[in-house]
Each structure stands twice: as C-alpha cells, then as structure tokens.
Amino acid sequence: MIARAMELGICHFDLADNYGPPPGSAEEMFGRLLKTQFASRRDEMFISTKAGHLMWPGPYGDWGSRKHLLAGLDQSLKRLQLDYVDVFYSHRPDPHTPLEETVGALVQAVRSGKALYVGLSKYSPSQFNRACEMLREEKVPCLLHQFRYNLLDRSCEAAVLPELTEQQTGSIVFSPLAQGMLTGKYLAGVPENSRAADVSSVFLDADKVAADRARVEALQQIADRAGMPLTQLALRWLLRRPEITSVLIGARTVKQLEDCASASAQDPLPQEILAEIDALSEQAAP
After folding, report:
1. Cβ-count burial of 76 within 10 angstroms (0-12 exposed, 13-18 middle, 19+ buried)?
2. CATH number of the structural domain spanning residue 17
C-alpha cells in the first residue's frame, strides 16, 4: 500500500498516537514498515502525527497540556522509530488547559527538533485564529488546519474556510467520503463487516446511514449523469476549492487507493454539476 501510494505521487502519511486499535498500533506498524522497507525514502515522505486524545488512564493521559502533548510526541517518535515528524498536531482543543500552554508545547516541539512544523485539528474558528496569532508571534506559524468536510457536512464553509484564507494556512480535510457513505457502499443497506455494522463505531451507525440515504442517492444520481463514480465526485468537489490543500483518504485496498488518487488528475467539475450539488445542499439545510 505504501509503495503504491508513493508510485502515485502520494507522499503525505497522516498518523496519530491514538490510531488503532489498540492506540499506538498504527504508528508501530508504520514505523516497522518504514525501517524495514522504506528507510531510504524517508526524506521523500511527509509524516505527521498528533496528540490530544485519550492514550492512558490517570494524570496527563489526555487533552492538550504541555505534559501530555510532549510526552505523547516522544512516545510517537519511539513507535515510529523516527527522530522527528514533519508535522505535529494538537489533535483537538482542550477546554480545561489555557491555549497559551498548548501553543507553547507545539512551539517547544519544533524548537527541540522533534517536529518541523505544527498543525491544529478540529479547532473552532475563534480558537484557530487565536492559536495562529500566538504561533506567529513565536515565529512558529501554523502550517495546517485539519477538519471535517464533505458533501454531507458543509458546516465549515461559513467560518472555518474564511479563517484559512485570513491566516494563510494550509488545510487537510478528514472524512472526505463521510466514513464511506460517499462511496455508495451503503445504498443497498449496511453490509456485514462494514464500519456502520460495527457496534463499537462512534462515527457511523445504521441510523446515520438511514438518515442520509436519500441525499446519498441523489448525489449518486448526479455522479451517474456526470459519468463518474460517486467517490470521484466527492473528492473532486473538495479539491476544486483553493482553500483545500489536500484530503485524507482511508483506503483499505490498493484499488481504493488508486481510485481516490486518480481524482487529483481530473479536470474541474462542470458548473452545472456544482449547481446541482448546491441545490441539493440547500434543500437539505434546516
């Protein structure tokens, strides 16, 4: 999967300390592969990780304190078997820790040489703006903001996207295919062994699939008329915006990886397709 990704021109590999299950296992696996098969290509890779979600019970096992973020980064580097990551994110804002402390930890991560750049994830527009100003004052500007954005969830358009332009930062979109709903795999129901069929899933379940089925069906019809897979429509719709630097895909097979990667080489979506999508979104708005 990694080899094929690099053949396709993909160089950004997005990780976090809590990715698993169990937490830490995604970094451990990537670290083993990097050391045994891709060590000579490290400088071609853009590797990011994050800290801020629950990693261990007890004191400092969660959120955005200096203690948790810097300990989390050290643990991530050990699992990845790296001296540094290209981007270290605050994975989510902490309602109990002063933002100055969280920002200070990100600054220390860069000045210690353990991260080349810093990023923010899931910050509200006001939090993002304030954090960017503090980082800029420390001469460690925010490189990327990571947030949810897809054809079924356009809530970031009102405030998050304008802040990206204002702060002149890049952006990485997660859940571009709405946890798989924008692949069309759920149009006939919830397949066995799918994410929505997993009772432990906190992001997608059968009720969510049912609630959005009509919109996905309408989007599938738009994709059919345009002569492209729904996946292509969803990714090309995101990549058309100048505020969006890239999107994060969670491909499970090489075929899925190839299908997603091919979206970046396509012509812009026709205006009539964009108008249909906008009309559908307006109909769905509360």
Report:
1. buried
2. 3.20.20.100
Gap between the Cα atoms of 204 and 211, Å rounded? 11
- The total number of structural domains that make up the chain: 1
| pLDDT confidence of residue 227 | 94
> pLDDT tens for residues 5-14?
999 999 999 9
Which of 51, 57, 45 has the alpha carbon at shortest distance from 73?
51
For residues 250 and 93, what is the distance between their CA atoms, to the nearest angstrom? 23
- How many angstroms separate the CA atoms of 286 and 284, rounded? 6
pLDDT of 124 strictly over 90: yes
HSE (side-chain half, CA atoms, 13 Å) at 51: 28
pLDDT at 261 over 90: yes
Helix crossing, 271-284 with 206-226: angle to 10°? 150
Beta-bridge mates of residue 172: 146, 246
Domain membership of residue 168 (yes or no) is yes
Q: Contact, 115 vs 86, CB < 8 A?
A: yes
Domain holding 22, by residue range, is: 2-181+234-267
